[in-house]
Amino acid sequence: MKKLVILLAVLLSANFMMAQKMDRTNAYNYNKNGQYEKAAESIEKCVEHTGFLGMKPKDQAQAWLYRAMIYINIYQNRTLYAKYPDALEKAYVSLQNCIKADPDYVKDPQNAQDVYSRVAAIGECYFQDGIEQFNNKDYAAAALNFRKSYDISLTGSRPDTSALENAGLAYMRGELYDEALTNYNDLKNLGYDKVDLYKNMASCYNLKGDDENSLKMINEGLAKYPGDAGMIIEKVNLYLKQGKGEEALGDLNKLQEMDPNNVSILFTLGNIFGDDTHDIFDPDKAIAYYTKIIEIDPTYYDAHYNLAMVYITLSNQKITAANEITGTSKAEIERYNALMDESTEYLRQGLPYAQTAYQAQPSDDLKHLLKTMYVKLKMFQEAKELDAQ
Question: Is this prediction's pTM over 0.70?
Answer without folding.
Answer: no
